[in-house]
Amino acid sequence: MTGMTDPRADSSIAVYKRGGAVDIKPLAAVEINRIVEVDRSEHITLCYQYQEGQLNPQIIDLQVTRWSSSEVALLAQQWIPILKAGGVMLGALSENSLVGFAILRYQLTETIAQLVALYVSKAYRRKRIAQQLLTKVSQLAANDGAQALYVSAAPFVSAVVGFYSGCH
Fold first, then answer.
1. What residue segments make up the domains of the chain, in order of their start?
2. Which of 14, 68, 89, 151 is the most core-located residue (most Cβ within 10 A)?
3. Three-class SS of residue 94?
């Protein structure tokens, strides 16, 4: 992390949900396996395909389940090197349970940082947790000199396409 203090020294942000606060705070790379706590499950009925400059919706029927231990192991192999190279994983915690997370890679290029991952548990969606995680990631990236944040999303999650379409 060039020119940046360790985000673990940064104070937590409190995000409010029904029944209490969700704390957003940096997590260590050794905590990567905690992503299994995040319930990514959902039933997807729309897929988007980019054609001729437009996102075109297509009807599908896909059931996404919680992560398996093998999926978590594969993601850990991909994400731990990013974290060890200076990236940061922010966790959204409710009563010490991980209910969401974001991973930031500083300096994908000299001027662009990357939002590597952003997930929020099913029961915690539409409570502005993803927005708070994205805001914190954007602040960290900007503080490190990034002029832009590279974001990619799975084309079959209509809520995600809508979420990122509204971010500028």
1. 7-165
2. 89
3. strand
